[in-house]
Specification:
Length: about 220
């Protein structure tokens, strides 16, 4: 890893800036999904996880940036948290009344989990918190990024990627690659492992768009 880090050191400023800009741009990808919700007139058929998950990740990512004292991660995650809160409010506004109770429950769970993890970071030994908090953050990100693959059977059966948020997946692929480079530069094994895994998962999901159309084929519709 040190060899790669040495090769990338001359580009440290460029990579860090690109990672920050790309991540900030990724946060705006949720606006495209919000626009689809607006066009549909309801959020009933749209997953809530990308929005509430983004809020949780914003809180934990901001805390991790503070732990690492990383000047790139802190402002980026602060901006992401603010946008994620806006998206959650938008989603809730378009949620049918009979489903709002479920949304409140998910927000409650997410809020309690975030508060518990942040409280843990204040309590943990400062010599251990960087690694252990990083592992928790990795687990959260793994769940968020791999969640669309839970419906892989449905995607194959319908021969369609309908419902998959392409803007979020595409931007996630680019962002994870840039943070992978950043991890090599700062010689942080957790950041490297995290983003290598996330880049692979995002690339797999992105490849589905090259295999299947955005709408179910006539053959798939008849089989349903």
């Amino acid at each position: 890893m040190e060899v790669i880090s040495n090769l990338l050191q001359p580009y440290k400023g460029i990579v860090s800036a690109a990672a920050g800009i790309a991540t900030t741009a990724q946060f705006f990808s949720g606006a495209f999904v919000c626009n689809d919700i607006r066009k549909a007139g309801s959020a009933e058929k749209f997953p809530f996880l990308p929005f509430i998950g983004g809020t949780v990740f914003g809180v934990l990512g901001l805390q991790y940036g503070v732990i690492l004292r990383d000047d790139t991660m802190i402002p980026v995650n602060l901006a992401g948290l603010a946008l994620s809160i806006i998206y959650v409010c938008f989603f809730y506004n378009y949620t049918p009344n009979h489903l709002k109770g479920r949304v409140w429950a998910q927000m409650g769970i997410a809020g309690a989990f975030s508060a518990a993890v942040v409280a843990y970071a204040q309590w943990e030994d400062e010599n251990l918190v960087e690694t252990r908090f990083g592992l928790i953050l990795t687990a959260v990100m793994v769940y968020m990024i791999s969640a669309p693959l839970f419906d892989l059977g449905t995607i194959i059966r319908n021969q369609s990627v309908e419902g998959l948020p392409f803007p979020i997946i595409f931007s996630g692929t680019v962002v994870s690659f840039l943070w992978l480079l950043h991890g090599f530069i700062i010689l942080n094994t957790i950041v490297v492992v995290q983003n290598l895994f996330f880049f692979t998962l995002s690339a797999i999901q992105l490849s589905l768009f090259a295999i299947y159309p955005s709408k179910p084929t006539d053959k798939a519709k008849k089989a349903q």
